[in-house]
């Protein structure tokens, strides 16, 4: 009986330790993708988490754009970026999976365009 209680106590401590080491996406992430002219374009994510809430910005050739509707749960990440293009609002959907120092992201810039796959890597500062 004593061994069983001891086992469950260690199991609980182990689970709590694992949750403390869950992925944290806070910080800077950079990714590159080919632009229309074939030149590589850099995109930077600056992210901050508060529980499952995700905030931050996406920076690139269209400037800095705030993240809205941001969620981070387990290794899943998603958010929306609203840009103003020539007087029209354009919503881009970002969805991805975090694996260590990489985020594999699928970006749907517009509904009438195919999603773009991109890998962001954590910037070590």
3D structure, described in words:
The chain has one helix at about 1-20, and strands spanning about 25-35, 40-50, 55-60, 65-75, 75-85, 90-100, 100-110, 115-120. With about 120 residues, it is of the alpha+beta class. Strand 5 (about 75-85) and strand 6 form a beta hairpin. The protein is globular and about 70 Å long. Mean pLDDT is about 85; it is low at about 10-20.
List the helices and strands and how they pair.
Layout: H1 2-20, E1 27-34, E2 40-50, E3 53-60, E4 63-73, E5 76-85, E6 88-99, E7 102-108, E8 116-122
Antiparallel strand pairs: 1-2, 1-8, 2-3, 3-4, 4-5, 5-6, 6-7, 7-8
Oligomer state of the chains in this structure: single chain
- What radius of gyration results from the CA coordinates? 19 Å
What is the rounded distance between the termini?
50 Å
The CATH first-level class comes to: Mainly Beta
Looking at the structure, the CATH topology is Lipocalin
Low-confidence stretches: 10-21
Architecture, CATH level 2?
A: Beta Barrel
Tell me what portion of residues adopts beta-strand conformation. Answer: over 45%
CATH superfamily: Calycin beta-barrel core domain
